[in-house]
Structure prediction request, 363 residues.
Amino acid sequence: MIYASNVTAVSRRAATKAGRGICLGAENIGENQYENDVLVAQQWRAQHVKPSQKCFGVLLDAVSSIPNAVCTYRLKRFSSIMNKLRRPGTHFELGALDDIGGCRVIVDSPSQVDQVVLVLKSNLDFKGRNPEKDYIREPQKSGYRSHHLFAVVEDEGARYRVEIQVRTRLEHYWATAVEAMSEIYGHDYKSPPLPKEEESMDAERREFLKAVSALFALREGTSPVPGSEGLVANDVIRRLKSLSCLDQLMIDLRASADSVFQPDAIDDGSGGLFLLEFSRENQNLDVERFAVSELRDALRRYDSLERDIEGFTREKRNCIDGGGAYDNVVLSYAQNPEQLSVAYPNYSANVNLFTDMLKQYGI
Prediction:
């Protein structure tokens, strides 16, 4: 990434203007202006590093007494930011995005979600009118469930938004299955459906995701997913088994989960901070471990890898998030390596756990 040491820190307004220019493209605004807008947008992203790191430190304290809790910290990939701005039917602005810097907490139960949220609310400042979105008490139509908090962190006189997601393992397995299906079928199942999907196989796959989420909500005793009110587990299972896409979908998910080498560098069973480096091209995952007391060193190492991954040149414009042996990096905290699989920056391990869970329902 271009951390432009010779560029003054950019404002929220300047970031929004640059984001609009990038969406228009070099062919409409000119080559030089496009390159300048990219530099400004990358600088805006870089300015979220310290605020996100501060949030991650607070998260580590918040989960210290919660068994099996896993925390992760990452910056949103530049390509993912641009894809979000360009998403059809939306009006996102770069300066207003809440999730450029992000932290996540994964725990065992909804009651632990509430416990973490309470601690975070006591130790961080949050966005004014919309400080949180509780998709566990009010699940989305898609079946998405998680509790989002939008922290506001000050750094060098400016205020930055950092998204914190707190979710259970079941909710996390479901979310990573959505990512896996999006990659397998080349369709973004995280975004709202398009009108042409109504009679397509994609519509059935979305119904599969909604039904599985409804099943998981019943298991956890939380609010029902829209459309599943009053149903019991057997009703949802019958709905799942009626889908014509089910058998092939499960085959495809299981096949995708077999494609990633698992790390074998962690064998002494101790916890701490883990830097997970993933190469999508060769499906390889490397792990570096740090003690919690070495948080500053782990963050510096993360920052170094970020700079390599987000390196940008004119020649790389068509693969804007390229730039190194690894194309994804996540800093995670776990109390032992076995818990770490839920934080992998790829979906393989979580898809295995997702499909194993469905086996318990005869699916």
